[in-house]
Amino acid sequence: MTTRPAADPTAADPTAGPTADASADVRPTHPVTLPANQPPERFYRGGARIAEFRGEPVTSERVPEDWVGSTTTLFGEPTLGLSPLPRGDLLADAVAADPVHWLGAEHVAASGPDTALLVKLLDAGERLPVHAHPDVPFAGEHLGLAHGKTEAWIALADADVHLAFARDVTADELDRWVATQDTAAMLGAMHRLHVRTGDAVLVPAGLPHAIGAGAFVVELQEPTDLSILLEWDGFAIDGPRDGHLGLGHATALRAVDRRGWSSDEVAGLVQADASTVGSLLPGGAAFFRADRVRGDDRWEPSFAVVVVTAGTGTLVAADGTRTPLRAGATLVVPHAAGSLDVVAGADLELVRCRPPLPA
């Protein structure tokens, strides 16, 4: 992990051209640098490394997630989770008011005003509970939603994760583990995988998983907050009440993939490592796209959420408007920004996250 430097030399250069003023308009034609957006009092600890990454003070031990460029709310919440733009307007409202401006005509024709993407920074100050997310058919049938929650992690620190069952698990066995909160049995039946800094891991919907303590990731996912808890004992959450999406565990647990995955299959979910530049998650292309950029680059017009993971640089628009980049910054890019040039400064590295291509 790289902390943010004190200053961006590009931003200070008076010959560098006009600098984007993101506060001026909810229809910007340039990338917009976003403030932190951390829902408070989550049920697991974390957040110190997000603060360090952004160069900001630690405010709580229970703000382990930063929802970046989010038009998605926490499950059951009317507004919590939605990203503000710098002057206070919600990104969701700006997109709804002019979806073609933000998302592009081709995307809107295929998906409507749905950004089809949620990006987070996640800092696990403790191991997360074993849980799973529903897929699109389950979410459609039981919740009336167009998205499930396939997700992916791009690791900013080394950590262990539990991922997928290593043997077939019967429905009765899973029911019993959940009812008795037999965490040892759950974890003992799962693969344990050591994720290294720079790895990109795809987590298909339905797959049980538990991110380990110390994990710090950029997380891409379908734009929902749908989690089915298999474990809650010892966490600050009422699992019997809140762990089943209001469906009851008897129904919710049907969304869990109980198949035994082989070691090779689980290894295949790691789709890139720290040496990979360009596309990181080809197996997740139906749900999201992620590219790692190092050095200069040229971007075609697209809605995007950007996380700068190291170094400094500049995004230059066709009209010469320059948006500074620095480690710890997060940005949202409207389609209307057009083609952009990435001009790398010292050790620039960033992750560009985008919705799937229109079908």
UniProtKB/TrEMBL annotation:
Q: Which Gene3D superfamilies match?
A: Jelly Rolls
Q: Which GO terms describe its molecular function?
A: isomerase activity; metal ion binding
Q: Which organism is it from?
A: Cellulomonas algicola
Query: How is this protein named in the record?
Result: Mannose-6-phosphate isomerase
The source's domain of life comes to Bacteria
Can the keyword Zinc be found in this entry's annotation? yes
Keyword set for this entry? Isomerase, Metal-binding, Zinc
Query: Could you tell me where the Low complexity compositional bias lies?
Result: 1-25
InterPro entries in alphabetical order? Carb_Metab_Reg_Kinase/Isom, RmlC-like_jellyroll, RmlC_Cupin_sf
Designated gene of the protein: manA
* Ranges where the record places region Disordered: 1-41
